[in-house]
Amino acid sequence: MLQTLEFALLRRLAVEQAENRVPSLVAAVVRGDRTTWTGARGKVDGATPTADTQYRIGSITKSFVATLVMRLRDEGKLDLNDPLDKHVPGTAFGAVTVAQLLAHTSGMTAESPGVWWERAPGADWSALERSLEEGALKHRSGARFHYSNTGYGVLGELVARLRGTSWLEALNAEIVGPLGLTRTSPHPEGAAATGWAVHPYADVLLHEPTPDAGAMAPAGQLWCSITDLARWTRFVGGDTGDVLHPDTVAEMREVAHIDDDQNWSSAYGLGLQVLRINGRRVSGHGGSMPGFLAMNLIDPKTGTGACVLANTTSGAAIGALAGDLIELVEKHEPALPAEWEPATEADPALLALTGQWHWGPTPYVLRLLPDGWLNLTPVSGRGRASRFRPSGQDTWTGVDAYYAGETLRLCRGADNRPTHLDLNTFIFTREPYGTPAAIPGGVDERGWRTLEG
Fold first, then answer.
1. Domain Beta-lactamase-related, which positions (predicted)?
2. What does the alpha-carbon distance between residue 323 and residue 276 come to, in Å, rounded to a whole number?
């Protein structure tokens, strides 16, 4: 990284810390599969915090819990459309689905009943469940986005039931260990920042409590160093190791519900926030607990991300800060595109399928991608375009856009030669309305003609 860029990143961090009176700030930038910059300002126990200093990450914990749930889904142990009652029976809110809990569309109350859970020791699952026997649902499930810390307490219990262990033990075995997150824990271990509230009208501090949240811990319990959070940011961008398939993480980044109106800037997927900052669509999660703020964001298209940790209850605009760090890198040191290289091999049968196809009179181009994938795109550039991955003999499955999840099938004649493509009942032929026998409703036997004809 250029020294001028490193200075620009440090200056942006320094301005945030000084102008918003933050006791300490640490940040990191990631690109692809590595961390390229870290910086720190302020003091922890009289010294500048290091990349090893722990901070509480609050609701970023939710993205870890969501990953545990998606692992269960990928293993076939649950379906996202399953009602909670199938796996955690007997609750007063058993009709809400796993997907709704992940995306904050279950309608569940935002906070657990009783005292302010972030500042008080938490009880166990049975106590949380009893407190939710009445008034748990504030909205019709699926009707709207309503952020629910309680919903993630429920998901932690779901993980525990299906794994036969605590959610924390599952976290350590399935995520923390495999990703090498040596400084991620439910409580501070070793060098850690103290959580402070900064007086609004004087430069004095108030110590904030950091109790164990009990059954609500899956909503915001974890502590993390900036080194570990940088690795987690790379995970969100697709550098997933063996923890999840990158396609599953991409699914988590897809918008499930929009949080604001009109030209949206904030949305939520399956355990991940989706934001528009500086004209970029980035994914990650923010965290806020008494005494701490945290944020991790990454642009999946470029692989550039940033994460920030602060030990203040409020005041620092760390979402904007993380977005600005990404923008500085992309503006002053954009990544070079990967070199194009010719394919090492290509299936002649697939190569013969490439070129122009027609949906009715509309021309499309079919291109062969690596690993036998196909890309079907309108010649005009307007309309439905999708990529397809192989799923069987002469079949492919859509992976994005309108045809995501739909089947593209190569159809053959009696002589086994390809005749047309069937894309979820839409027929594509080499010539406009060619292969008349395959066209639903048939083709006028008089063929193409003028108005007078």
1. 17-328
2. 9
